[in-house]
Amino acid sequence: MIELKGVRWTYSGADGPTLDDFSLQVRRGETVVLCGPSGSGKSTALRLMNGLIPHFHDGTLEGTVHLDGQALADLPLDQIGRLTGTVLQHPRRQFFTDETETELAFALENFGVPPEKIRERVAAAVDDHGLGDLAGRSLQRLSGGQQQQVACAAATVHRPPVLLLDEPTANLSAAAVERFTATLRLLRAQGATIVIAEHRLYHLYGTADRFVVMRDGRIDESATIGDDGLRGLARPTRLQTPLTCAHGPSVAPGATAPLPRAGLRLRGIRCDFHGRRVLDIDESHLPAGTITAVTGPNGAGKSTLARILTGLQRHQGEVLLDGRPLTRTQRQRVSAIVMQDVQRQLFTDSVEAELRLEAGQGSGVHEVLRDLDLERYAGRHPLSLSGGQQQRLVVAAARLSGRRLVVFDEPSSGVDQRHLHSITRVMRDLAAEGAVVLLISHDEELLALAADQELRLRRLARP
Amino acid sequence: MSLDPRTKIVLVLVTSVIVMAPGGVTFIPAALALGVLLALGERAWRRAVALPLTAGAVAVVAYLLPLALPYPVIGVVAAVAGYLLRFVAVGGVALHLMRTTTPTQLTAALRAARVPRAITVSLAVMLRFLPAIITEARAVHDAMRLRGLGGGRGLLRHPVLGIERFTVPLIASSLRLADDLSASALLRGLGSPTRPTTMRPPRFGVADLAVLAALTTTAVLR
């Protein structure tokens, strides 16, 4: 079905080829997973299969790519689009319309499907993907995980024979991953040929026919899953993480042990968006010196809680640090955050300057760069780095910030095994210095490594 | 009452041509009344009150102030206010279009009106992209506040640096957004040579007929 032969691809302006002598055959109806460390060329391989290379991205291509016997270089992009469904990383950036249903209809409208047929297919897709709850809501206000679900449904609604997914579960909760895997099995049973680039592998065990390991732009025949740099196939097991002290409709209640004074205390925190309550916590305590994992289903208000605590979001109730109530402006001064979209928080013209902004001329810059495997890039412009490298750079800046509250919002999407450990070390160091560290994540592997205790959020019932 | 998006577009176009044309001042009260009626129709009570009040205030500056204070400077201010008044009058009708029509409906309406694709596609992209840039700008601003780079004081001390630190990440993330958005849209057939269809094609109703008839009469009488 898909055949890549001796492909060598160099992005224009890049130092060297991203893929070199890359060959891969995917049979009809097969489900293949591309795995490998960050920067090994997984996303690029997918772009070759959906024609974005060479039709959309600039660069030099050698070798051939065939889809169902046709050379992709000769097919126009919309023709390739009829044959393939693609979900890129960052679903938020792919939506063309403002609502779930219109987004699902988008491809069908462009391909000229009659209106009554569109309505029928859209309704079927809403059912198949379990999107009933999201109908009529603004796409930009959905949580990252919900957006991922919609993007996946929107890519498959025109029933393409080939499905290409770039890190589809990066921000999904355990329950959403399960739903996604079920959808995948359904599409597979319907005969779709599926190629997935992914770091988290355990959920694909039993669904995928083949795991292909990539390294440095080619297929590494000798590698096996579980090798250095790859995540394992076994479902990560997290020992019972104790629940943090918390009460209120939005949280799973935790123990009321005698509490230390140091840390953050939340009292009567409530937050509404457009008349709808999204967060409601009567009382909670997040101690200093520990890593508190904030977990819960997609859309439970995890990122909103982070914005409230760091002083970015208006809310009712009060937040105390070490027993002293702090205003929102005061909290902005004692907080640092690693956002889900890190390129919004890179402000200077070199990696080192970015860290000096936090640390001044102080020491520690080089150690942090080394710890996070960024030393080679010290002089590079932050925006010329890959997504994973940018993520580590922002983590490095947070490490040096010296703030009392440091929030990591999904720091491990697109992160391989090795960097999972280095990010965990950073969080440990911050906690050891007495910071309140919050880790928002669905990544069970990261949670198993890092979480000391857990604040489990629940989705509020709709009135 | 809800109008077909095509009717709303025609309303905005006709109102602006009539009011902006020479001698259009006489039609300002009529345009304002139309704006208020539309606001009432969509239950936007605040706009229904604010629109005539704003227009009244601007009219006072344009016509009464120069009588009370005969200075040249006031004359200039009054002339500017006179133009502004026309924009307020058209703005009331345009706001109705913007508040009651989603980008999807607008694109569908333009498609149904057989507007060339070059225009509908670029308009759709613009409508999609503007709010996205605002979201990006807010996020960058948030990130700056936390890094201690935001706030008026920093901007006053190093204006160029402050602007650079805001615009560089904003442009970078907007460019990435544009890249991903166009890649995903092209793969989903945007710009394909097939004639696109619409999930819920717009339909003309009785209200549309009434409005269009009234408009034609006005235009002819003028």
Describe the structure in your own words.
The complex is a heterodimer of chains A (463) and B (222). With 463 residues, chain A is an alpha/beta fold. Chain A folds into two domains: 2-219, Rossmann fold; 263-456, P-loop containing nucleotide triphosphate hydrolases (Rossmann fold, 3-Layer(aba) Sandwich), CATH 3.40.50. Helix content of chain A is 30%, strand content 24%. In chain A, helix 4 crosses helix 5. The model of chain A has no long low-confidence stretch (mean pLDDT 86). Chain B has 222 residues and is mostly helical. Chain B has two domains: 1-101 and 199-222, no CATH class; 116-191, no CATH class. In chain B, helix 3 (45-68) packs antiparallel against helix 4. Chain B is flat, with a radius of gyration of 22 Å. At the A-B interface, helix 3, helix 4, helix 5 and strand 17 of A face helix 6 and helix 8 of B.
Keywords:
heterodimer; A: 463 residues; alpha/beta; Rossmann fold; 2 domains; six-stranded mixed sheet; 24% strand; B: 222 residues; mainly alpha; 9 helices
**Total strand count of chain B, please?**
0
Radius of gyration of chain B: 22 Å
Mean pLDDT of chain A: 86
- Tell me roughly what share of residues is in helical segments of chain B: over 70%
Oligomerization status of the protein chains = heterodimer
Structural class of chain B: mainly alpha
Integer tally of domains of chain B: 2
Beta fraction of chain A: 15-25%
Q: Distance N terminus to C terminus of chain B?
A: 27 Å
- CATH class category name of the largest domain in chain A: Alpha Beta
Quantity of strands of chain A, as a count: 20
